[in-house]
Design a protein that fits this description.
By secondary structure, the chain is α+β, with helices and mostly antiparallel strands. The chain has one domain (1-273): Sortase, Chain: A (Beta Barrel), CATH 2.40.260. It has one helix and eight strands; from the N terminus they run αββββββββ. The chain has an eight-stranded mixed beta barrel.
Length: 273
Amino acid sequence: MRDRVRVVVQGRGRRSWHARRAGLAGALWAAGELAVTVGVVVMLLVVHQVWWTNRQALSAAHEVVRELEGGGWPAGPEGEGQGEGTGAEEGPDAEASVGPSGGSGDSGSPGGAPAGNSGPRTVDPPPRASAYGILRIPRLGVAVPVAQGVDKRSVLDKGYAGHYVGTAQPGAEGNFALAGHRNTHGEPFRYINRLRAGDELIVDVRGKRYVYLVGQTLAETTERDTGVIAPVPRSAVTPGAGYSEPGAYITLTTCTPEYSSKYRLVVWGTLKR
């Protein structure tokens, strides 16, 4: 009788051990499935952000370029002789402020455009977020719409180059300053670090063409270095970077390093006379 009791107790112990083992295996399996599911979701988000947004924005931007090339120019500035915009715009997102997100973000720009540049104002600037010109960068094979303002959602995320409100119009004395995404959302400024002195930056506005020649590049500056988009562009952070004499300038700004909005990359050019 005593032996039987001992056998029954041992049998229950084995069943309990097997049950615990099965429960642990089930928990590990569930955790593994959850990890795989989360990984797939994250991967899809990355694919959407890095690939799909590029595809969408790039396709839409190319369509706008084709429309403008076909004569679909909106009412807006005609270039030379244009004065300043309607005032300073709020500092944009991480790629859109040099005191910018990119991100697209992606898209950097200094935080707040400087007011004022030379030249009489003869025509009102185009509406905010409206594409009114085309920036062409032959070395990079880029043709991107130019729109007024550097708002992320309504301008930069569409794959446009955003014109800092308060800076000069194309062809005018002062600084025609632009921001664009380096990564995602069409990433029109992704490779502007490859530009060299003498490369052309071409701006088409309502049938008029303005050709600028790259003069200087600032590989890295802070997002608050608003001097880079001043009427006479000159870095307030890096001594000697920029210009000291009035003229007709163009400035391209974006985020750096890639897939980061920590610093800003700047390319300057001067109008070819």
